[in-house]
Amino acid sequence: MLLTVLGYYGGYPYKGIGTSGYLLRDDDFNLLIDCGSGVLNELSNFISPTDLNAVVLSHYHHDHTADVGVLQYNWLAAKKPEPLPIYGHTQDFVNFAQLTSEGASKGIAYNDYEPTEIGPFKFEFMRTIHPVPAYAMRITKGDKTIVYTADTTYFDGLVDFAKGADLLITDTNFPEDVTGRKWHMNTQESGTLAKDAGVKRLLISHLPQTVDSQTMLEQSQKYAGNIPVVSAFAELEINV
Ligand SMILES: [Zn+2]
Ligand SMILES: [Zn+2]
After folding, report:
1. Which residues form the signal peptide (predicted)?
2. Can you give the pLDDT at residue 119?
3. How far is the CA of 150 from the centre of ligand 2 (A)?
């Protein structure tokens, strides 16, 4: 599996870098995970957006869905014979309904009680703790696994869900000194999660615009122990 980070900021894009979006490629299958602000533009540097085979959305906050509408226009203009499948949860019917657009895309529901096969990948979902319903994803192909926490506060269930993953992608929106009640993880929680889950590699993402990325990386590494931590600002393409 080849993972390409298309945007790694939380909340809003900044200086040419978008919010959450990850292109996952394998067996000629092109899958987009989250479709934040600036993601469609970046995606076109790697593949034609109309060569996507599917999109999976973790939740319906704008920093994960801002470019869905323009992606639908892109598909509409291309007059593709089949609509683009966009997978989303149905805990919010208004937003789920937007995933279907005549001549462009079709919304498909996922849930957290059975795996969903999408192309060559098996997806398992787990509800996270966030102000709106959001789902972490465990993606398996053969003996390789990628886990994406999506947006979430830290909770113990993440450790089991991420167990032994080859790559863990975490919502690391805060430095270590931001503690208390919050809807994202800080560097300490991301690093500790990676260590406790025994993952092979940690990718910190959903980063803040106001803290130097190198600082975020060094803090996460301190808590992850000997597990290598990478950040999308340095490493955009990761082979899993
Ligand atoms: Zn977010
Ligand atoms: Zn969110």
Report:
1. none
2. 97
3. 8
**What total number of domains does the chain contain?**
1
Ramachandran bin of 150, using left for φ above 0, alpha for ψ from -120 to 50, beta for the remaining angles = left
Long-range contacts of 152-157 (CB under 8 A, 24+ apart): 152/128, 152/183, 152/184, 152/185, 153/128, 153/129, 153/181, 153/182, 153/183, 153/184, 153/185, 154/185, 154/189, 154/193, 155/128, 155/129, 157/126
Cα–Cα dist 41/158, whole Å: 32
Residue 142 C-alpha to ligand 1 middle, in angstroms? 29
- Give 82-95 pLDDT, tens digit per residue: 999 999 999 999 99
d(CA 11, CA 205): 12
- Tell me the per-residue pLDDT of 4-40, one tens digit each, with 9 for 90 and over: 999 999 999 999 999 999 999 998 999 999 999 999 9
- The CATH number for 40's domain is 3.60.15.10
**H/E segment holding residue 64:** helix 62-65
Q: Evaluate if residue 159 carries a pLDDT over 70.
A: yes
Structural contact between residues 174 and 187, judged by C-beta atoms closer than 8 angstroms: yes
- 10 CA to middle of ligand 2, Å? 8
Q: What is the arithmetic mean of pLDDT over 61-79?
A: 98
Range of the domain at 229: 2-239
Q: Give distance in angstroms: CA of 12 to centre of ligand 1.
A: 9
Closest ligand (CA of 131): 2
Q: In the block, which residue shows the tokens 């290598």?
A: 228
